[in-house]
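Summary for the steering committee. One of the milestones for this cycle was to obtain a three-dimensional model of the protein with magnesium ion bound, which we needed before selecting residues for the alanine scan. The sequence and ligand used are listed below.
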Amino acid sequence: MSSTAQLLDGKALANGLQTELMQQVQVLQVHMGRPPGLAVLMVGDNPASAAYVRNKERACANVGIASFGQHFPATATQAELEQAIATLNRDDRVDGILVQLPLPDHLDAVALLNQIEPSKDADGLHPVNLGRLVRGEPGLRSCTPAGVMRLLEAYKVNLKGQQAVVIGRSILVGKPQALMLLEADATVTIAHSRTPDLGAIARTADVLVVAVGRPALITAEMVKPGAIVVDVGMNRVTDATGKARLVGDVDFASVQPIAKMITPVPGGIGPMTVAMLLQNTVLSYRER
Ligand SMILES: Nc1nc2c(c(=O)[nH]1)N[C@@H](CN(C=O)c1ccc(C(=O)N[C@@H](CCC(=O)O)C(=O)O)cc1)CN2
Ligand SMILES: [Mg+2]
């Protein structure tokens, strides 16, 4: 018997969500008298970050969200960024603010995230919004894990009573992801780079979410047959022919034949992250 996993098409779902948000914005701005606004703060010239920022600004334009982005040189100081955030916090045209990560080493990212007004925290990374998630209260949710939940919901994955394993413990993905799965009544295990016998833990998962940043970390023998596999990894590698390509943390070729559902990279969680950012911005706008 041979079968192959169904693809969880994040790109198609994200496109549909963008259309819905565009329609909402058209109606809402009649009453609001202005479009929603998002400010993306980018520091330095990391080419991947620059591409993600362009991608976000293009998505904003498609939906009718005004961009108030600022690009700082790699030498920008903490005080300059704090000043920019303080000004955006007070700017009534701006509903969402985010700091593109990673930042150059001399900057304190946590201090900057803490300074963003929680009601404008489009990335859902402020302690107030993370605290609301811990308490199960409504609030702005971190975009990547919210995108994972929205994608699973669209494919009618019932998480109640399921064994979920999250591999990765970052504040951007792993920790909020575990809390969101818990909120959906899954039984959740968090594993990470220091977990002994990662394979044994991963194999217990009905739903496996991998967010480590290591190509081919998860191979077929680490996956329970019939599992739902969500690959949050995004790694740029050079293949045998010398061509650069983007791969996740899951060895797609070996895992797809045994999984029930799997996200592709690209076209899975990446586009959902951007869709959730737009959704958070529109949510902040509605509540202003
Ligand atoms: N402040 C933040 N910084 C970072 C975040 C974040 O959510 N907030 N996440 C990542 C980068 N990121 C958004 O910022 C991001 C990365 C990739 C994609 C995406 O759509 N990827 C495409 C492929 C694109 C390509 O070919 O390079 C896909 O997966 O299909 C969206 C968002 C780290 N920093
Ligand atoms: Mg991680």
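Key point for the committee: The radius of gyration is 19 Å.
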